[in-house]
Design goal:
Blueprint (H helix, E strand, L loop, with lengths): L1 E4 L6 E3 H5 L4 H28 L2 H12 L5 H11 L3 H28 L2 E3 H29 L17 H24 L8 E4 L1
Antiparallel strand pairs: 1-4, 2-3
Length: 200
Amino acid sequence: MPAAARGHGAGRSDYARIVRPDAPALGVGFLLVQIVVGYEWLSSGMTKLVHGDFPRGLADDLHERSKDSYVWYRHFLESVVIPHASAWGYLIEITELAIGAILIVSAVVWLGRPRISRRVGAWLAALTVVASLGGLMLALNLTFANGYGVGPIGPDSFDEGITLDVLLIGIQTILIAVSLWTFAESRRPVVGAGRTLTTV
């Protein structure tokens, strides 16, 4: 039921209750999904870094992938990306590592200290938005490069339907939307002097 939280609760942000005031477990579940997405990007970046062959092999890989890509995207790859594939390769490695680290750390901070200052909550939400946007752009580019579709019917009976990259597009779009909402809620003025409203 609604109650006024005084003292140390004033000016604090409760992620689980922002996401769903009557069901904080959904907020926790959302953060666990964020950790899984972050782990996927972190694992992808670390794999590229450890093997060390991604930047120099990106051009050949894109040449092969682009055969099935959309015509307009194939032109983009051939004119912008492939001529500078090595630089793009290093950028992708760094970006994937950063995305993974930010998504995991921000989610762990929320889980470890669900009631944190509104300023910290706003920063965590903003970082999650930036990381998710980066992940969304990478997933979109991989989808375009491979010529994947998003229709409900796969190419054959042994296909999984949609790929991981397409799935990441949807999940990260949701991450962005919820994080923007959390950021907006964290920036809202505290109700009353020296107190804020919450639920218990």
